Amino acid sequence: MLVQALNGLQFGILLFLVAAGLTLVFGVMDVINLAHGVQYMLGAYLGASLAAATGSFWLGLLLALPATLACGLALEFLIFRHLYDRDHLAQVLATFGVILTLNEAVTLLWGSAPLQVATPALLEGGITLMPGLQYPLYRLAILAAGLATAGLLWLLVEHTRAGALVRAGASNRPMLAALGIDTSRLFLLVFGIGAMLAGFAGMMAAPILSVEPGMGDTVLILAFVVIVIGGIGSVRGAFLAALLVGLVETLGRSLLPELLRLVLAPSPARQAGASIGSMLVYIAMALILAVRPRGLFPARAG
Amino acid sequence: MAIGRRAVLGVAAAGPLALPAIRARAQGASVKIGLVAVQTGPQAALGTQLRDGFLQGLKHTGGKLGGLPAEVVMIDDELRPEVAVTKVRAALERDKVDIVAGVVFSNILAAIMRPVTETNTFLISTNAGPSTFAGRGCNPYFFTTSYNNDQVHSVMGQAATDSKYGRVFVMTPNYQAGRDAAAGFKSRFKGEVADEVYVPLNQLDFSAELAKIAASKPDAIFTFMPGGLGVNLVRQYRQAGLASIPFLSTFTVDEATLPAQGDAAVGFYSAAPWAPNMENAANRRFVADFEAAHGYVPGSYAAQSYDAAMLLDSAIRKTGGKLADKDALRAAIRAAEFQSVRGNFRFGANHYPVQDFWLCQVAKRPDGKFQTETVRKVLENDTDPWAVECRMR
Rounded to whole angstroms, what are the CA distances from B278 to A25, B187, B272, B371? Predict the structure, then answer.
């Protein structure tokens, strides 16, 4: 049970890394960025290639960050810049196009077979949580990295001038522009950081998940669930919602079949439990939205 | 929608043979194969294996099948049944292909089955082997050079019984093929199933299930996690320190996923009718030439397609190149007078192979690449369980 809770937390942290960038972009810029998952995938691929080229995971990680930042800035400059004044449908269509294009480009460049990224030697091994089961050190490192990122983001958003602008942008954008703030530069910055966060998440996930084309698409759906639950534009909301989604996902999957076994025969209980377990996140989202239609911590005023 | 690339293999494969090949085409005596292989999306690696295997076979026959210059029309099914049907119809009607071969996934095979066989064209599946066409749905124009899916899972059940594992933990994805895998395993497993867990098809993180496995302390686990699912599971299983529990699997560790699984998969088990290390002349030649040409280790997808090319070569030669005489061609295919890379190979009454099945284990080769290697023969000359229901017309 404790182990499952830890698993849930760790999955939640990974989700947070993806969702944080998404909520910033969505909240501040009011752009639906379906291509965020692709940026996560790019991070994993760039990290994997750079780690292979330099022979060191850490060097790969270090180089992948500016690389994903550059990709994000290029995307903003070439595509997203032209979408700010369009409606959401146009944004969805355009960013969906970006998904298709980049997924295909990745297949062309790296091939369609999944890539392998070795766990760095420093974080090899694990600690024994219960007899026969090791908790890999690397997963603890993901927890630590996620918490550190959350802390850094909190500092950046709550206690710096740039952060104040971001918060202001999230709550009332026309007013911010009227006050003489260069919103297009702010947007470029936010988008770049969002892309870098996604890339960082992808790179961190690479040693435990398979690096393959389309890997971002599954994460993207959960990341949207997270930001909707958390309240669009709110980093704090995204953090709590990510932990919540991680816990509900993991605990639901592991406990539901057992619970259903009390009322059903074992075999149908297992199948029904598994099915309901994967629905649970969305049920939780529906419930939360029924009570708080704007999410847990809405950023936008009135 | 346009058909993908075409390759005139008589020209591409063998330079010196090019001239006679073209002359023969002018006389109309040639054979056109429509090769269905997924080239789009995350499963494209499997389609690539399938394609390269078939083309390797054609290289060994000098770009000909039974003496006729062969032309291959590539068909990318995009893993979408409706796309597959459209493209295969176009290949039949516009390109006038004589035979359709390939197909990685069962749902694609199910979609193109009627369009192909209704035109009295032979369809040779080189991977997909669903039960649907093995029993009552067997078809005189359909052959497969792979296996019946249920067989492979049951082989692992037999292997677990032979290894005297008392309690086995079963984990498969929550969809039809996943439930079939669990049922197939249990059909020959005599011990106790410690627990059955079904996971969503898009599962990324297995830590919840891994904790369950550790808590239930089984003698072994049985799993069926194709593609990226298997890559994630194998790595996380190893990282969680569970590798001391034998990992029995089907379609989870194979040559298509091993490059991504690497060291994490070493020592894990799978069941198959073929492995790259099999000791026979045909297989040694196939594996050596395939690796030299393509730079990666061939998997079962490639091996079964290579066999299909060799099968067609033998059959067309037997009929003297008369493709129009369908009954003669069917009899010649059924005779299967070719050297399979698997050693033993013949067709059962339902046109599915009757063959040996092996327990295989992942090993790292001296050159640093990974492959599955045979451990022991589990079933000999095994006929799939549906063959008795087939009444071939």
Answer: 55, 27, 12, 11
